[in-house]
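debug: dumping io for the single-chain case to check the tokenizer round-trip. Nothing else runs in this session.
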Amino acid sequence: MDTLSFKTKSANKATVDKKWVVIDANEAILGRLATGVAFLLRGKHKTDFTPHVDCGDNVIVINAEKIQLTGNKWSDKEYISHTGYPGGQRTITAEKLMVKNPIAMVEKAVKGMLPKNILGRDLFRNLFVYAGDAHPHEAQKPETISLNSIK
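debug: decoded output
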């Protein structure tokens, strides 16, 4: 066996092939949607995945206002933020956040599944979430992907 012919590919910013994909969040469960989106953003579905390189795709999520939560999460799940001042901790339930800003629920779920470093912040910039079914990225010719096809 000729072991010298086997080379480990290491992708870099110049050799990465980034695509644009659209995911419809209509009637999708929030956590399952977020894991699939984070998987695509990270690039783990590609054969030349390199852990320290942004080799994932640009992901567009549409219909963010139609996501679902299981159980009693609409009333029990709380999102916590802090103003930075003493006593400035604020909480908001998932139900109120959905009314106020449905895009934030998807963004917070996906951001929590990305690495907590500079690479994670760069990957998060490749995510575009929209409340309706229209998006301004038609020029990039994105392909539509169903959540079940992400493995």
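debug: round-trip ok. The chain has one domain: 19-146.
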